[in-house]
Each structure stands twice: as structure tokens, then as C-alpha cells.
């Protein structure tokens, strides 16, 4: 007989709500915990096995050589045994089918309720954004006296008490330290996601156009306006001020190993090649998150691993998050300028640096590639997959504002978001449907939020912990992604190189 699938172990999520993974998407309408979906899958497998056992019993009965209608299985000890086994198998098949149907129905009901609330929130965001845009001049005039008197009172109080501007709860930083959950609240994150998607509606309202135009052109209509157009508008308005201006970029290997390079017909010149080291293939989501470069002002932002033979290589590309938070582009292309350009889908400096690093590392258009990234790096990883420049077979993003990017069919994609992480919400509400699998958890569910970290749920260390939970999960589609990755990278060690992008002369 076919062996039963292993019963999924119940993880610590039953005891720790912060360890609960919510899984949705993947081409289905289901939204549920990973354990519930694993239980449903196990019950479906049990049902299929029971039906297979019945088919085998039917084959045993067919061995009876007695002519119909007097089969030999109508009496006797063996006949009773076979009959009893058949009834028991019927009950197993029926109960497993009923339980699986109930679990799937619960997951579909939860998913439908979530989608309905999202539709209501998006529609409300369109109306709110349009209304605020229409009322913006009046609101600004009404708020001016209050802001002026408040600023004067704050300055006077500072002079009388001797407090410095950076101290105390009167400042934004002080207030956030006193209220650490203010930006780490799933409700706030959901609201920000809707508001970001409503910026274009506010612009339509401010332009004096009627509300139906906003609804028709926005995400809920033709999709001509949205987060990308809002980001592009911010870029255009900021350029005269010298803000968010893109530049050419170049990449260098880290560390650099000088080697002689002899061009055709010319003398030898000093060149560079990346220093590589042997590395085992990634075994799961924890390994993927662990190998994403950490934020560093002078370190690498891209790690590229090559597996397989020189004739038929495959690649995993890891991309780090934002390093520089100034709106003025400097040396670092992993900055706010690239953030805004990437959201606007306008060839960010970080995207161009990643593509250049991939080509210099030897990635060819037909080679299988798995891009992986955190934060801005996840946004770039999704854009690499969507661009069609490379043969992307799978992609994994952690805490990335990539909801508006539509991935091509056939790409095995997993998006990991913390519901108390504000950064993914800056990408707005998800755009067109694709088959990516969305995995969520609330990092600080039932826990104290560290007051010294503004966005602790966005930390790469937090996503690395989520990756470990995903590896322990019995959810079948998470296991399938790991199987796909294993097929791409193989079992033999590969070679890893690191790369650093640099901004050069301005536009």
C-alpha cells in the first residue's frame, strides 16, 4: 500500500501568535494559516490514498473466478474481512473528504472576507483621496493659524525650559520613542497602504476633475493612474530642487583582486575580477534571507552565486536594502532616489547596478536565475523577474514594496511581508493578480515593541527569523518552492561573489 503522508507537526504558533504564518495567493483564493492549509493537504492525500485502496480491493474481488451472479465473496471469513476493510476504507475516505472540504471552505470564506474588506478600503481610499485633494486649499488655510501658533508655543516652551529640539515627547522622534507601536501596528500599516494608493486620487481632486474621472483612471478602473504615476510626479516636481535625480552607475567586485587584462592589439592593463569563494547551495528560505547583504555604507549590496557547470550554470542573486536616506543622490545608489525611481518604474540606479553586476558576473539571458531581495532589494528583485531580461525561474522577496509589480506567468514567486512592517505598504495595494504566494506574520503580536528602533518589524534579522519559520512549516507550496530551488541550484557547492554599486557623474 502507498504510505500515508506524514502528519504535519503543530509548530510553536499555537503558543506564540508571532510565529503564526498566514499564507494566501499562489493562484488560489485561500487565506489561512500554514498549518491549516497543510492539514487540508494531508487530508486530501489521505482521501486519495483511501480511494486508491478501494481500487485495489476491487482488483482483489475481480480475482474471483466464480461466475456471476454467485461470487465466492458472498460469505465466509475472508469475505467478511474484505467487506469490513472496504467499509472502513469508505469511512476513512468520506471523513477525510468532509474534513478537507470544511477546512478549504473556511479558508475560502476567510479569503473572501479579506478581499471584500480590501475592496471597501480601496474604494474608501479613492473617495477620501479625491475629497482631500478637492479640499486641500481650504484645509491648508484653516491649518495655517494653528500650525503657526503651535510652532511659536513650542519654541517659547523650549526657551523657557531649556529643552533641545531633539529631546522629549514634543518632537516627532520623542513621540515615537514614547509610542513605539505607532508605526508598528497592522491597522496603521493597512491604512498607509490605502493612503499611498490614493495619492493619485488626491491629485485628480486637486486638479478640479470630477470624482468619476478619478475612479475611472485609478487602480480600481483603467489603472492609468496609481502608485507609479504618483512617484513619477514626485520625481518631476523635485528635480528643479536637485532632489531624487538619477545618475549613471557602475559596479565593482568586492573585494577587488587585480589581474592582468590584455585587450586585442594593445598592451596589458590592470583589470579587476571578483574574488569568489565556495558556498553550499541554499537549502531554504532561512538561507536565502541570511545571504542577503546587510545594510552597510561601504560594503557590498549584491551577492551573486553560480552553480552548475561553466557550460550550463544557474544563479542566485541576493540584493540588499536601502542604505542612504538622503533625498539628494550621492555615491550610494541604494538610496531614496533609487527607492522613488523603482516605485515609479523608471530604471532606478540600484536596478541598473544589479543588472550590470549580473552581466559582469557572467549571467547570460538563458541561464536560470533566482533573484532574492529585502526592502528595496526585494523591489529590484521583482523588477528583474518582471523585466524579461533574464530567465527568472523563481523569485523571493522579503519586506519589499513590490505590490504593484506584475510577475510573468510561470515564475515561482514567494513574497514575505510582516503585517506590522510599514515599508511594504509604501508600494500601495497590490495591482494585477498573479500567482505569487504571499506569506505574512505579525512580528510583535503579543510582544513589546523596542522603543529605540523606528521600524523593528522591517529589520532583516526579523525576516531571517520568518525564513526559519517558513522552513519549519508543513505548508505544501512552501515545500514546493524549496524543491524548485533545489532543482535549480543542485546539490554541489557553488561560487559566490560580491558587488558594490557606485553612482558616477550626474545626468
From TrEMBL:
InterPro entries: AB_hydrolase_fold (IPR029058). It comes from Cryobacterium shii. This is Alpha/beta hydrolase.
